[in-house]
Design a protein that fits this description.
nine-stranded mixed beta sheet, globular, 347 residues, Spore Coat Polysaccharide Biosynthesis Protein SpsA, Chain A
Amino acid sequence: MPAQQQPAVSVIMPVLNEERHLRDSVRHILGQRYAGEMEVVIALGPSTDRTDEIAAELVRETASDDRARVRTVPNPTGRTPAALNAAIRASRHPVVVRVDGHGMLSPDYISTAVRLLEETGAQNVGGIMHAEGENAWEEAVAAAMTSRIGVGNAAFHTGGTAGPADTVYLGVFRREALERQGGYKEEFIRAQDWELNFRIRAAGGLIWFSPELTVRYRPRPSVRALAKQYKDYGRWRHVVARYHPGSINLRYLAPPAAVSAVAAGLVAGAVLTPWAFVVPAGYLAAVTAGSVPAGRGMSAGARVRIPLALATMHMSWGFGFLTSPRSLARRVIASRRAAVRTEDAAV
């Protein structure tokens, strides 16, 4: 597409406690090889570190840039979907690019995404979440997140051929698709991307995955943080499944099945027969064996941590899914109905 015809782009960023990566993330946005106009809208949650100060510096530094400026909007709740909607409302361009505060876009990410929107007619395009660590633990998590034993057949983690997808990482949207769907549903504290893409597909829109698009991602820095992340993923994925019946598939059922099997084996081994311990032992053996190809070429410190990263992801996701209360889904549904009634009354 000739430079003079490239559409203007709005980059939206939900940010909370991102002092470690925010400046680098924005630098990768402003350094895009894209001739069209850009704006970066950062939705600031109530951070307890230097995130707000860094964001203010970025606003000042780009104030005189006619092509790409940084602006901020408040997100008092600190919740990701609320931040995304606030940034969408404050932005103005026809193409909307979602980027997290710890994501680093590849140099041609935006230009490639705009081309793919044009070529495929998709409403949303996305690519590979390329996890990279800065120490042995983060490298182990990155390996786990990009291996099939860690995340199954999710193309945006493991790669694959270009084509239609259920969901994609982050996403580059046509604004009209976001407006037609009313943006993200703020009731979904997690899994809001999957839920939005489900609605876009249900309305006849195309979600397109392409390995041409790559975003470098920084994993959680500790076992505890990783466990919380994946527990929340599982908890809210079950909420989505209850909100949209029939939206679940076998890949999402593997972690809860593993948790149930391991727990049953431990209980039966302690109460009935030691032979039952073969189930959790088999799981540990499988995770350990699966970590070998995932850790090729990595340091010894990272390789020995991969089984722990894999088990943390599986067990936390499965536990979150299994313990997700039905009352949470009911609250989400009730909240959405109340919001719809309010919108109808306003009309």
